[in-house]
Design goal:
Layout (H helix, E strand, L loop, with lengths): L1 H9 L13 H8 L14 E6 L2 H8 L14 E8 L6 H18 L2 E7 L11 H8 L6 E11 L22
Bound molecules: flavin mononucleotide.
């Protein structure tokens, strides 16, 4: 349990990465926890596109102006897609998977950042999701929620202060 708390405490959004690539064992270790994350009715409505090709990472980084450019510097990007044909709550399923991937990254001492795609636009005002779907030849029912950029940490944001969490966000009903 203390390991879990340490991962939660130290996980921060890391937006710069070193040039060191990830090896295949690291990629497998990253994804295993994600593939057992909960999905509604156990329908496994989430699919993942894993990219380490620098040219594709560059192209992916311009899909989301400004807040997506960090993808270009990552060693790996995982496009988290929901299957709309499989589940009516694919967004929730995909968000849990992406969140698990962030924690899995920190567990391996890798830096990661969620880049939102759903409901975000490209520079020309067209949906970022459309560009991602075209880039990877996705089916109409495969919907990208976000890209999780991952790499060896190039910055070390301060861990969360667990003694000063915002308890005012919690209402206890007796
Ligand atoms: C739904 C969601 C969308 C996000 N989108 C982006 C994004 O597009 N680009 C980015 O740099 N960070 C993005 N983030 C990261 C948040 O900015 C970050 O989690 C938040 O500021 C808290 O900081 P921390 O992750 O270091 O605790 C996103 C996070 C979530 C949960």
């Amino acid at each position: 349990m203390s390991d879990f708390l340490e991962v939660v405490r130290t996980r921060r959004s890391v937006r710069t990465y070193t040039d060191q690539p990830l090896d295949s064992e690291q990629v497998i270790a990253l994804l295993k926890p994600v593939l057992v994350a909960p999905t509604s009715k156990g329908k496994d409505s989430v699919e993942f596109i894993v990219v380490d090709n620098k040219e594709i990472l560059e192209r992916l980084s311009v899909v989301k102006p400004r807040f997506g450019t960090l993808i270009a510097g990552a060693a790996l990007a995982v496009v988290v897609c929901g299957r709309m044909d499989v589940s009516d709550v694919w967004i929730e399923d995909a968000a849990i998977a992406a969140s698990t991937l962030l924690l899995s990254s920190e567990n391996l001492n890798l830096g990661a950042c969620w880049v939102q795609i759903r409901e975000r636009n490209q520079a020309d005002g067209t949906p970022a999701a459309l560009a991602v779907k075209e880039m990877f030849n996705l089916e109409t029912y495969q919907e990208p929620l976000c890209v999780v950029a991952i790499g060896h940490k190039g910055q070390h944001p301060a861990p969360h202060d667990m003694d000063n969490v915002k308890w005012e966000r919690v209402r206890i009903v007796e």
